[in-house]
Design goal:
By secondary structure, the chain is of the alpha+beta class. It is built from nine helices and eight strands. Among the domains are: 109-222, no CATH class; 249-313, no CATH class.
Length: 327
């Protein structure tokens, strides 16, 4: 039993003697099915999304037995899109993008870059190899510091500081009769305890490499750009929704509602901007915005003309334009 668990058990036993253990029972959570009504507004509660996904908007279409669900969210992983862009993904495919948010070969690439950097620094005399001490860092005054020796000493200093911090934390928990966190972690890294002279020289070398075109070419060749793909076959990119402004979630809800109602009425919908090549095919005499509208109009279903009391109705009614205006 480690120190955290032992302290927690002691405090729980003390609490139980003072007033029972009812306060320590974890509340039960129950899953409540989503209930929607056709004739009144519903207020479903969304569960907290994964950290990689962040906040988003869910679009649900269904009749009680047949459902379709789309999630409008910020770009996941590495996409080349802006952080405040919005993309739309079938909810069933979200997990495929989350699973591939990070480059699966990132560790291999990092290891390859580290080895190449060491070799390059050796060629530049920033480092030296020693048979007994291993890799050495060459300081500006010619002195040398062993990498392994500095790392070993830093780890010892870190462990000492961590043990002191843990004892202080547990003592504070006992004084305040507070259960210590099982996942308590020391707030500082081992690198924090590296020798200051060693770290300063490393920073100097880092700046020299950042300005070295030859090294940048080597590094670029070892780290090709990764793009997060998902979908059924893991081949789909995330496409930006055609919002020009960086809307918040509440504004996205309203804009999606407007686009949906407008498109169902035969209006203009913007699922994503048409390609430049498609717009330019309409000729220079028409603006890109008008070309996009005409392209979208051809893809949207217009309801048939209905006759009511001798008057034509519908978007395609005689004497009316597609947008509802009169000639």
């Amino acid at each position: 039993m480690n120190k955290i668990t032992e302290t927690a058990e002691q405090i729980k036993a003390q609490k139980k003697q003072e007033g029972g253990d009812s306060a320590w029972r974890k509340p039960k959570t129950e899953k409540v099915p989503l209930q929607l009504a056709l004739d009144k507004m519903s207020s479903p509660k969304l569960l907290d999304p994964p950290a990689k996904l962040g906040k988003g908007v869910v679009v649900i279409i269904g009749d009680g037995t047949h459902w379709r669900q789309i999630t409008v969210h910020r770009p996941i992983g590495q996409t080349g899109l802006a952080a405040d862009d919005w993309v739309a993904t079938p909810t069933s495919e979200i997990q495929s993008f989350l699973a591939m948010a990070g480059d699966p070969s990132a560790q291999k690439k990092a290891a390859a870059v580290k080895k190449a950097e060491t070799d390059y620094c050796l060629s530049k005399k920033f480092y030296e190899n020693d048979k007994e001490k291993g890799l050495l860092l060459v300081l500006t005054d010619g002195k040398k510091m062993p990498f392994q020796g500095v790392a070993d000493q830093a780890k010892k200093d870190w462990e000492t500081a961590r043990d002191i911090a843990l004892e202080e934390y547990l003592a504070d928990c006992r004084r305040n009769e507070r259960i210590p966190k099982k996942d308590w972690k020391f707030g500082q890294s081992v690198e924090h305890y590296y020798d200051s002279t060693f770290k300063a020289r490393q920073e100097e070398i880092k700046k020299l490499l950042a300005a070295d075109d030859a090294w940048k070419a080597v590094k670029t060749g070892l780290t090709p750009q990764y793009v997060t793909l998902g979908g059924p076959n893991g081949t789909q990119r995330q496409s930006r929704i055609g919002f020009k402004e960086p809307y918040e979630t509440s504004q996205v809800v309203d804009k999606l509602h407007q686009h949906l109602m407008n498109s169902l009425g035969g209006g203009y919908i913007i699922p994503a901007p048409p390609s430049k090549a498609l717009i330019s095919a309409w000729g220079p005499e028409i603006s890109p915005e008008d070309a996009a509208k005409q392209i979208a109009a051809k893809l949207i279903f217009n309801p048939p003309v209905q006759q009511t009391g001798g008057v034509s109705t519908g978007a395609a009614a005689a004497g009316s334009k597609a947008d509802g205006s009169t000639p």
